[in-house]
Automatic annotation (TrEMBL):
Species, as recorded: Salipaludibacillus neizhouensis
Gene name as annotated: fecE
CDD domains for this protein: ABC_Iron-Siderophores_B12_Hemin (cd03214)
Membrane topology: Peripheral membrane protein
GO BP terms in the entry: iron ion transport
Entry protein name: Fe(3+)-dicitrate ABC transporter ATP-binding protein
Localisation: Cell membrane
Domain of life: Bacteria
Pfam families associated with the record: ABC_tran
Gene3D superfamilies: P-loop containing nucleotide triphosphate hydrolases
Domain ABC transporter stretches: 4-240
Keywords per UniProt: ATP-binding, Cell membrane, Ion transport, Iron, Iron transport, Membrane, Nucleotide-binding, Transport
UniProt-listed PROSITE patterns: ABC_TRANSPORTER_1, ABC_TRANSPORTER_2
The keyword Cell membrane appears for this protein: yes
Iron is among the record's keywords: yes
Amino acid sequence: MSYVSAQGLSVAYDNHVIVKEMNVEIPEGKITSIIGPNGCGKSTLLKAISRIKKPHNGIAYLQGEDIHKMKTKDVAKKLAILSQAPELPGGLTVEQLVSYGRFPHQNGLQRLSSKDKEAIVAALKNTNLMEFRDRPVDALSGGQRQRAWIAMALAQETELLFLDEPTTYLDMAHQMEVLELLERLNREEGRTIVMVIHDINHAARFSDHLIALKDGKLLFNGDPYHIICPPVLKEIFHIDAYIGKDPRTGKPVCITYNLLPEDVSIKKDAGLLQEV
């Protein structure tokens, strides 16, 4: 079943079309990663199907409704999104930041209800931030700060969580910290998670479903075993990849790769990719 989908979706900035007539389906209860080269439309697609960017053509659906015709609060009760490098006012504590996630459930400027406070505490516990609740967000490490933003999204109590490059600028340990948290939220709570990610090994390890874009078009989608393979990576990234099996997860892993010469082109023939 598709929680989020799009039909004939095209998105443009000024007169430049970034996303071109895409048909997309996001499976419910799974972790979906969007991969592809820089500038291929990954973040733009995420913005369009999450109502941040209005499409030029086509429709994005949230549980069968045109998301761009839904009320903002109704969307915010179903979908939480964490953008790239989000900004916040200086001096906010972790708990204050997380409390922002309760805005969709409030009327006007009312004080936090007991239910709001329970949701905030649950989000802090879920992200292992209780001991940092009174600490300024600016004083946190990169991984802790990213967990604080995720906690804010969790406080919205949505079934769907979108993240645009959640591991950017983080070191290896903090990347794993964030990705393992997202995996736990999916496995233990059944949250549907969609993320844009650059590292194809992380995408393979932590995702159930992959969407591979190139030049604004959706070329491949499916499970990691069918997407993280030499023919697909050759088509998407123009690389000659050697793929092995992760001994810990059994998932495919790119062990090494070379950039292909410029004169190597690829075509799809009866569902298979061949060099020409």
